[in-house]
User: What shape does this take?
Amino acid sequence: MYRYYFLAPDLMGSEVNDRALPPLKKRRDDDTNTDESVEETDRVVVAPPPSNVTKETKKRPKKTVRIADSDPVVAMETDTIVSHHSHSTVHGQVFVMGQGDTGQLGLGEDMVERKKPHPVGGALEGLRVCQVECGGMHTVALTGEGKVFTWGCNDEGALGRPTNSEAEAFTPGLVDRLKGVKIVQVSAGDSHTAALSEAGTVYGWGIFRDNNGAFGFLPPPSPPTPSPSPHIIYSAPNKALKITSGCDHMAIVTEHGDIYTVGRAEQGQLGRIAECFSSRGGRKGISLLLKPDVVRVRVKRKADKPKFTDAFCGSYQTFAVTEKGEVYAWGMNNYGQLCTGDKVDSFQPILLKDGWIGGRGQGRVLGVAKKFGISSGQHHTVVCCGGDVLTCGRKEYGRLGLGEESEEPGVPALVESLKGVKVASVEAGGSCSFVVTETGEVYSWGMGTNLQLGMSDDEDVWTPQKVTGKKIENRKVLSVSVGGQHTVLLVSGDGE
Assistant: This one.
């Protein structure tokens, strides 16, 4: 669930006007960069780490897919199929709204702005789409048959396929290098995309960026350049069950209850790199960041080691949930978006204890709620707990949904205007927020400048408002994802 990419450079706590930043066709400066110029020299790219042996779950015939030596994708032999509750089992049609000057709306070169949800056709026409995700300036769709389609900005290989223009694609296209590999989940960041196969292998393409610009995607000896086609970035007996992306990092949940992270580390988002090595690995080298490795939690006894069952990446944060329902967090916290009650970045996992949710109880209680999820933007976090919605972090432009006169809460505060609304999922953008209800309605609030909210104008919205539109009347919204300037909805039904 990605998604949180409005380009605002105030990550270190200084106040700036997010709205003043113009849409960029090619994003070169990173959100956290404090320099005016960006160096793009130290690029580098993600080989799978070895791990433990996994037990088999669901049997299927062995199958090997052979691909030419020049092709970076190597399909693995498998006799198991992985599963996770986050894998979508429903399907629908893709709708978009917002701005799309680099093609991220997928509506063609002549339609780069929509105030209300509009269906995406082209290569997606008639397909059963089960998941759709926004990157910073691109979009990824997954079909029920396991095929991946992409569109939008491609200047750093985020689409994973050749395009007529080197920089962008205005309509959906198939990532055909994954032919023969069935994908069950996708995730997307500012300039990267990842795909999880039914065999528990993670593929990825694009590039990661930090304060000094692009620094690579695969570890040495791979060249320090963008990866325009899918590569295996994680493949081990300890199979991957779920993937999630932030702006420039990823988290992988495995069947043994581990979490692997890879990518940018400067704000602590990997949870396994000390601050002194967070800038491109320091003296240990770039491989420290670009080889997925396990996030370790300090415990007194080995028996106390937590088994993770879920993870959620924010722009520069990561949240993880254990099988006991405990919630851990790490990463950037300059506005209190980690829900820890302070504003100190964390480079290692922190257990969210009593009171972190407005005095309502422990992380344990939250994590085992029937409806539980976390989505974190650049400077704020939205939590769904048992149907309630809570927010914390920076309040500018209304992204918390607490009203214009509200204060910034030290811990997540209940969004009172959604009381009585049964919320199924939440989504945080860079400066906006969304919820999807159990009945398939969607509400939005926050900054309206890029028309991402689905309202009739570009005004900021300080409390949740229902998203409406003729093309989604009498239809059920299944999910929502937010990019830097656009929003995508997965919608079921035929509107009759």
